[in-house]
Amino acid sequence: MIWIIVIAVAAVVLLGAGLFFFRGGGSGATPPLQGTPRPKPGTSVLDVGDNKTAGSSAGTDLLERPSADVPGEPEVEEVEVVDEPVVKPTFRERLAKARSAFTGYLTSIVGRSVDAQTWEELEEALIRADVGVQTTQDVLAAVREKATADKVTEGAEVIEILRAELKSRLSGFDRTLKLADTSPSIWLFVGVNGVGKTTTIGKLAKREMADGRSLVLAAGDTFRAAAAEQLEMWADRAGASIIRGAEGADPSSVVFDAVESAASRGADLVLADTAGRLHNKSNLMEELTKVRRVAEKGAGTVSEVLLVLDATTGQNGLTQAAQFTEAVEVTGVVLSKLDGSAKGGIVVAIHQQLGIPVKLVGLGEGADDLIEFDPDAFVDALLAVE
Length: 386
Known about the structure:
It is a single chain. The protein is an alpha/beta fold. Among the domains are: about 90-170, Up-down Bundle (Four Helix Bundle (Hemerythrin (Met), subunit A)); about 185-330, P-loop containing nucleotide triphosphate hydrolases (Rossmann fold, 3-Layer(aba) Sandwich). The protein is about 45% helix and about 10% strand. The chain has 14 helices and 8 strands. The protein has helices spanning about 1-20, 55-65, 90-95, 95-110, 115-130, 135-150, 155-170, 195-210, 225-240, 250-265, 280-295, 315-330, 345-355, 375-380; strands at about 185-190, 215-220, 240-245, 270, 300-310, 330-335, 360, 370. The protein has an 8-stranded mixed sheet, sandwiched between helices. A hairpin with a 7-residue loop joins β7 (about 360) and β8 (about 370). α10 runs parallel beside α11 (about 280-295) and α12 (about 315-330) runs parallel beside α13 (about 345-355). It starts with a helix and ends with a helix. The model is unreliable at about 15-85 (pLDDT under 50).
């Protein structure tokens, strides 16, 4: 029994000694005194070493100074979030391709006196820009008459006369988007496949909602795969409501339901998408006529029929415009992809040959790149001499 007690005491003694050496007691190190400051986060151990100048400013600086070698915790700064104003694109910035049809000719003409070659080059430039043969001849006839009457001899003066003539031909049109006297107003969007009708509606919805109008979008393109989903995505972005039907449903019924829904909600405006269709297919154009007729059977009024044209198609767009105007009485044109086209002259042809105003133009892919058509800014950008 005594031996067991002796062994137990010895074990306790050995265990205590081991703990002592494990904690550094046997190394000769002095344990930290109570009250000795410990390093703060981000402070070097050297800075809180043997501080024999306690109470002095130097000692305090050493204790508090963050180490250059050990970075401290980053300070969290409050950053004021400022909403950047929407900067709309300009014609001068975005019409580089359209301007390219003129640049070489204008540079050559400006630098010399007026001669027969001047008129040949102007004619070629206008036709290349897709103003069209007939419209080009009409424009140049007026420019030559003015230049002769004013005894103009310098090419630069001819360019200024051309600039004034084009602006004059594009003026005098009402480019506002009409609203009916009683809500809801209906804006019907028509055009062939691939011109950007759905995207145009989405961009316009964003703008109209920002202006304080309440909207309902009508997914009247019931034939193109994922057309309704695409329009629904735009509706979500704009914060607008959307009415859609089953795939292959009668587009007239979808538009009618959207108008009735807008009326019941007290909404201001219905933007109605339609299926893209070939302008030379009479049965499809007749269906579009039906869509317009049915849209007005309910509480709404069709105040705009906007034909969306792809600017890159040039004179083919003129043919489309003529056919759609006959079917649904187009009130205005939306010219998409103008920034990517060298055929900007189609604007002049649309106004001159059809008497339909271009109301909106697309100058990029962004939601804010759909802007009102400004004839003066357009002509200045088109005839700018780089």
